[in-house]
Specification:
By secondary structure, the protein is mostly helical. Helix content is 54%, strand content 4%.
């Protein structure tokens, strides 16, 4: 028979085990989702630290966008936009050819089940939740925002729904999105806030860091200056941020004279600026796991799809969006931690990188 001491010892061990489980479970909820297959890739520390004078660091845009159009990181790669649309359209055409007796609803349902697979959608959902939590943490850390302002912003972020198929009927008002590379935020006529993801994007964007940047950019639009202004809410901190953007050459003077008008770039620059901060946290969470070359490639892939691509001249809306060069060079590439992950030293813009505390 067990003695009283042995029974007490076993009881204490059981309690300790239960406590340890709940503590680990609580902490693990705050960790970013693990990139798939990263453990199988050998760490490569062979890349030397790049100095401030190095050509790569003189042009972050060229460093990210020139050379091979595909860069692989431990989580995947990012292929040109047009490839995703071609693949999605080929899947659609094959379904039509293989099933001539099917109606359009049946074709769409089958297409959606192939593109929006459980693996892809689960990864998208988990990344969206991580991005939302991270964005909320960043807002909570802003000392220039009042308690009421933070609550208003956080409540808005929480209202945004990630709206994705299946079923195909979810996009019944925009079925062409199944074969498009678009990801966007919108407020519906019913005042619903939603974020939609095109099927072609899911096909070409395999890098977790690219998905993080893309979702963070679109989610940030829910709290961008123009979106809040349309809701009757103006933040003084946002106006100071706008002045900093103007001083750093991130927005044109039209953003001052035509606020939230057809040529105002403030909302887009704001969304990029916020997405960079979220992405920097995502990259930092793996900076002690990945080798230097893996960190460089992960950083590149975060914005690889912002590089100029085929047919861009027909699609770029430079009245609302800054040029790809400005977005990558001055917004993404000037962030202190991003430059560190790329192996670069501080730049002039790094020293004056804008924040909500900007004066």
């Amino acid at each position: 028979m067990k003695t009283r001491v042995q029974i007490l010892g076993l009881s204490f061990s059981l309690v300790l085990l239960i406590v340890t489980f709940f503590v680990y479970h609580r902490l693990s909820r705050d960790l970013p989702p693990s990139p798939p297959n990263s453990s199988r890739i050998p760490v490569n520390d062979s890349i030397p630290r790049i100095t401030h004078a190095h050509n790569h660091c003189r042009s972050i845009y060229n460093y990210i966008c020139s050379g091979n159009p595909e860069t692989s990181d431990p989580t995947g790669n990012v292929r040109p936009d047009i490839e995703g649309e071609k693949q999605a359209q080929l899947l659609q055409k094959k379904l039509i050819a293989d099933h001539p007796d099917w109606n359009s609803d049946q074709i769409d349902d089958s297409l959606v089940n192939q593109i929006y697979s459980p693996v892809r959608t689960n990864r998208l959902i988990s990344t969206f939740l991580w991005v939302r939590n991270t964005l909320e943490e960043i807002i909570n850390l802003q000392i220039k925002l009042s308690f009421a302002e933070k609550n208003r912003i956080l409540a808005t972020i929480e209202r945004v729904e990630l709206e994705i198929p299946p079923p195909a009927a979810v996009y019944s008002d925009e079925r062409e999105l199944f074969t498009k590379n678009e990801v966007y935020f919108e407020r519906t006529q019913e005042n619903k806030l939603r974020l939609r993801v095109g099927g072609a994007y899911l096909i070409i964007a395999k890098s977790w860091f690219n998905i993080v940047f893309t979702l963070a950019h679109e989610l940030a639009h829910s709290i961008d200056p123009c979106e809040l202004k349309n809701s009757g809410y103006v933040l003084a901190s946002y106006q100071k941020l706008k002045v900093c953007f103007l001083q750093n050459g991130l927005i044109s003077t039209a953003s001052i004279t035509q606020e939230c008008g057809p040529r105002d770039q403030f909302a887009e620059v704001f969304a990029d600026w916020m997405a960079v901060q979220v992405t920097a946290r995502a990259l930092k969470s793996y900076s002690h796991t990945f080798g230097k070359l893996q960190m460089v490639n992960s950083t590149k892939n975060a914005v690889k799809d912002l590089c100029r691509q085929e047919n861009d001249d027909e699609e770029l809306e430079l009245d609302l969006h800054p040029s790809p060069e400005l977005r990558i060079e001055k917004i993404f590439g000037a962030h202190p931690e991003i430059r560190e992950f790329l192996g670069c030293g501080p730049a002039t813009l790094t020293l004056n990188y804008c924040s909500l505390e900007s004066r």
